[in-house]
Amino acid sequence: MHQNSASSHAHQSVSIIGAGIAGAWHALSFAKAGFAVTLFDRDDASMTRATSHFAGGMLAPWCEAEASEPVITRLGARSLDLWRAELPETPFNGSLVIAHARDRADFDRFARLTGEHDRLDAAAIAALEPSLEGRFHDALFFAREGHVEPRHVLPKLHARLTAAGGTIKFQTECDPDELAQQSNLVIDCRGLAARDRFPELRGVKGEMIIVHTDEVALSRPVRLMHPRWPLYVIPRDDHHFMIGATSIESEDDRVSVRSALELLSAAYAVHPAFGEARIVEIGAGLRPALPDNLPRIAIEKSKISVNGLYRHGFLLAPALAELTLNYVQRGEIDNEVMQCS
Q1: Domains plus CATH for the chain?
Q2: pTM of the predicted protein model
Q3: pLDDT of res. 2
């Protein structure tokens, strides 16, 4: 498995379970490297059961440094390059962090714990986001960050996989052990369904609301400081906005009244016009998390399990796929995330 030329991999079969963001990036990376890839998922092509369906899609490694380990920033920064290379149209308009006066202490703490940002005054905020003119006195601008629309970008990755010669089989339940008898390599990206491999996995609920309004225009994700967690408003196509960021230690996939009120209040605090917005969708997804909230690539002979992406799925998936491919091709080990049995 540790050969270098793409052509040498043409007859080596790789089965990948889970067509969410982690599985899609792994499948595409291996297919482009010349492997014979088959991607399996129990969902249909709409992927409405996947955690990815409810994700924000923020590519914000430096913002995430406020509450995550340095490895997240390191891998996240690498992922930005991979997103740019694979999907050049990915918007990298930066991230904006704002706060009201009552949350000034949280804002200053966020600034101390993060890097790669510029401090903006009210005039600079208005120049960057005219809809926010006169609403906030200062902000943090993370110019190098970006975002994707998960429900649009995941089908693009699937299409690029098939164009690279890979095969996708939806509505197919798979057992890693059974697949290992048919493939040279099995990569398990099942998320919470992989508790047979990671019994310590837990689900962390992320709730979101999508609204529509013609009265607000934003060019980048906006994070609003909040006493419990930073809440974000992410622009999507056709004047839609996703409001989210709750991280609740619960595997109940319903949205609570309290969370809905906080999310909608946050949007209203960013701009009063959100008070007249039309609610399009309310939903919740369960993120797969390990006890340390860090990703893990577990290697066991001809099976590799990739899990624990927590709230960083779209941010980390490209870099994790690259690490897995580097291991298979050249035996390279990243000691911060890889575990060999």
Answers
A1: 6-54+149-200+293-340 (3.40.50.720), 95-143+202-289 (3.30.9.10)
A2: 0.94
A3: 38
